[in-house]
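Ticket #4471: structure export looks truncated?
Reporter: QA, pipeline team
Priority: medium

Steps to reproduce: submit the single chain below to the structure queue and open the exported record.
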Amino acid sequence: MSNPVTEAFGGTAVLLRGFATVLRRPKLFLLGALPPLVTSVLFLAALIALLVNIDDIAAWMTPFADGWAPEWSTALRVALGLAVVAGSVLVMVVGFTGITLALGAPLYDKIAEEVEHELGDAPPEADEPFAASIARGIRQSLTLVLISVAVTVLLFLAGFLPLVGQTLVPVVAVLVGGWLLGTELVGAAFDRRGMRRLCDRRRHMATRRVRTLGFAVPCYLLLAIPFVAVAVFPAAAAGGTILARQLLPPAQPAH
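Actual output as written to the record:
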């Protein structure tokens, strides 16, 4: 059985290898940074609006606490506010990734291709029409966003629980968000091998959960920082291809 600590650090090393890959190709790195720059501006505006109004939002959600003692109503609303922010960031990062991958599809396909050729045994290019590939990618991204919204609702409910709302909710949000993000990032490599369903990705990711989270959680945390995502996204895209190759069996046939 693999050592969980070794596996976790192995996943983080995948992200570092992704950085090394794109930094050796400055032009590709800069081009790959353009789509996340556009989406970062949009999502930063949404995040700022949420943070500025979070007190009012929490109060609006808990009118029943208006008559409580100040310390209890404040504690409830702080816990709820944390849950709302954690859940919203989860949805934003997953949505950000899907939109950015769609906007920069040719660029990120090129990054994936560079990684495949650098590591050897590159599969042939996918024979799926470009329009069909984009449509499928958008459908799958929407599916993951809907999952993240469902998780956000659960986090919202958990935010009412004392202590749990302030401690477990952010941790669960990061783990779930990282997993969903990883599902997006390994997509290009799986698509090239004819495995175009989300369940194909999840099945192989489940064989090395700790390594997958070791890669995906740092990506999630970095992509949640406005404009840091601009520099991280090309490396995360490259790292997703590297991770996918580690998840797939060595003898995986090309399709």
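Status: closed, not a bug. The export was complete when the record was re-opened. Leaving a note from the reviewer for reference: The mean pLDDT is 86.
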